[in-house]
Amino acid sequence: MGFLEPRPEKSVTQDYELIHSVQRLDVRPKQLLLTAISHVNPQVPLAKQPKPFSVDITAQQWIETWGERLNPYRDLKEAAEQLNGKRFWLRNDNKKKSWRNWITGAEYHEREGRITVQLHHELMPYLCGAMPLFSTLKILHIKGLRSFASIRLYELTNQFRASGVRQISLEELREFLATKDAHPRFADFKRKVIDKAVAEINDKTDMDLSWQPLKKGRAVSGIKFFIKTNKQSDLFPK
Asked: What is the rounded radius of gyration, in angstroms, for the C-alpha atoms of the chain?
């Protein structure tokens, strides 16, 4: 089994269907997943990708990618344990859901300060050449984000950066941010989820995000996001 080095630009390319999948992860498993996906070259056809697709991630790479950590190897192990068995859910045109696994397992190398993560074969078509529409984000632009909601909102709006506008129903947004059953009052959802995620994105990434509620009668039915490139983006490493 060969180990893959991360691509130099450390970018993550995902099919739109994967971005719009339902994901329920904590922030570290999400970071581990993005790190693993950054090893995939989307230009290589699915038939020519390694089988199985195993990614070797060291504690040093973890620090370089996501910033200083007190115990990076422990963080890697815990992230892999939390990611193992987790699924993402896809919805078809009839609103029926089907699930796929993220990984098939992980191997820990205690004395070497690294772990090996194996991406599930059912995930691979959403990462390379087999799907028609893709969106790419650079890990360098999101490495400062410390909440799952912030990372997910960045993913969901980044793909609409060219048009500058992303409109989404409130129900879908709650589902995408894994908050469907939390904060049923919109005022609480706004304060505890949307406002915090937008503030963190604007403060720590290359994106300038603002939003306004969409209403049906007096009730909020959706959100319209306005996406710009942050003027401080020149400060971010290329």
From this structure: 18
pLDDT in tens, 161-182: 999 999 999 999 999 999 878 8
CA nearest to 55, candidates 80, 38, 36: 36
Q: What are the b/e assignments for 118-144, b being 16+ CB within 10 Å?
A: bbbeebbbbbbbebeebbebbbbbbbe
Q: Assess contact for 159 and 16: CB atoms under 8 A.
A: yes
Higher pLDDT, 6 or 218: 218
Q: Pick from 102, 26, 106: which is nearest to 73 by CA?
A: 106
Lookup: tokens for 94: 């009839």
d(CA 176, CA 24): 8
Task: Report residue 108 as tokens.
Answer: 């820990």
CA distance 107 to 54: 10
Q: How many CB atoms lie within 10 A of CB 184?
A: 10
Pairwise CA distance, residues 104 & 83, whole Å = 10
